[in-house]
Amino acid sequence: MLSQKENHPHPMVLPVGTTLDRYIMHRQYAFAFATGELSQLLRDIALAGKIVHREVNRAGLIDLTGEMGQENVQGENQQKLDVIADVRFRRALTFGGEVCALISEEEEGIIFTGNNNGKYVVAIDPLDGSSNIDVNVSIGTIFSIYRRISPIGTEPTFDDFMQGGQEQVAAGYILFGSSTMLVYTTGHSVNGFTYDNSLGEFILSHPDIKSPKDGSIYSYNDGNLNDFSEPISKYLASCRERQYSARYIGSLVADFHRNLLKGGIYLYPSTPKNPNGKLRLLYECYPLAFIAGVTGCLAVNDTEAILNIKPASMHQRTPFYIGAPKMVEELMEYIKG
Ligand SMILES: O=P(O)(O)OC[C@H]1O[C@](O)(COP(=O)(O)O)[C@@H](O)[C@@H]1O
Ligand SMILES: [Mg+2]
Ligand SMILES: [Mg+2]
Predict the structure, then answer these.
(1) What contacts 24+ positions apart, CB below 8 Å, involve 14-22?
(2) Which positions does UniProt annotate for Mg(2+) 1 binding (predicted)?
């Protein structure tokens, strides 16, 4: 008699309307060696996402807008919601028990959860798009998950976080926009779940997302244009000449999500102010590049694919270009000259 796992088709396409929980369970059965820890970790992230969704929605009512009055490791003034989101994800991942350590945009060092038997480490941008928090514009959370390489039962190490983008076992983001969505991948397909407030559930709404091969949307901060290299300026001029649509929300997660669905390119080049770019490799660029790869998009910096960059420090930055393959390839032609 075939076991449940052998009997279960792989991959399983689930209908729109499936809850996240049911989806995760079914996906777990599709993998012979799945033991449920990653599934539980994804549920913990979804739980924290629901709590932050609630805080974001009523931020203006409960004095959660404005600055915290302190700086984070990046030298940025922390917004209250940056700190709230950081605390909520840290708690959910600590109490969930599957994560032995995490790094966060809001914290300098490694956060040890005390779960030394946990198999996973997480890198997280608890609140992305901080400049848009107080003005009711879409913001989000970005996360990246690795299986630890340090022995289970011991204290996790720096090396657990320096495995490189290709070693991610899962990555995703939560978008707090006109609706709240969780989009993630474990490397096989990218699926989007919309939060139904009345049910308190994430519901499958965007199964197996495939991104257009080409596009006509370009996203960058025009205020930095004079500081871009000549090849980048030339590429942007060619987009303008072709009357592409310039769209820039100023929240990476929201700009990425739009371009993922509609076809487009997001650029954050290096500038004199940010000689290594602005965006952080481990908890902004790697996870979005991992998602992009599964949907057929490309993610690069001026010299290589983002997932091939060898990490060296926890908060390192990189120039970042991500989007429709035809658009990114064309940009690379300009950069190569
Ligand atoms: O204001 P700028 O320089 O255009 O930068 C906007 C970019 O910086 C970010 O806000 C950086 O992320 P955080 O908000 O998480 O620090 C991105 O979301 C966004 O794309
Ligand atoms: Mg960010
Ligand atoms: Mg942030």
Answers:
(1) 14/204, 14/207, 15/204, 16/203, 16/204, 16/205, 16/207, 17/203, 17/204, 18/203, 18/204, 19/201, 19/202, 19/203, 19/204, 20/46, 20/182, 20/193, 20/201, 20/202, 20/203, 20/204, 21/201
(2) 105, 125, 127
Which atom from ligand 1 is nearest to the alpha carbon of 127? 15
Average pLDDT over residues 314-336: 98
pLDDT band of residue 29 (cuts 50, 70, 90) is: low
Ligand found nearest the CA of 253: 1
CATH level 2 (architecture), domain 217-336 = 3-Layer(aba) Sandwich (3.40)
Q: What is the pLDDT of residue 114?
A: 97
Enumerate the known binding-site residues for substrate: 128-131, 221, 248, 266-268, 278
Residue closest by Cα to atom 4 of ligand 1: 221
What is the third-level CATH fold of 17-206?
Fructose-1,6-Bisphosphatase; Chain A, domain 1 (3.30.540)
pLDDT at 107 over 70: yes
Residue 295 CA to ligand 3 centre (angstroms)? 24
Q: Where along the chain do the CATH 3.30.540.10 domains lie?
A: 17-206
Q: Using the predicted structure, report yes or no on whether residue 314 has a pLDDT greater than 60.
A: yes
Q: Is the CB of 130 under 6 A from ligand 1?
A: yes
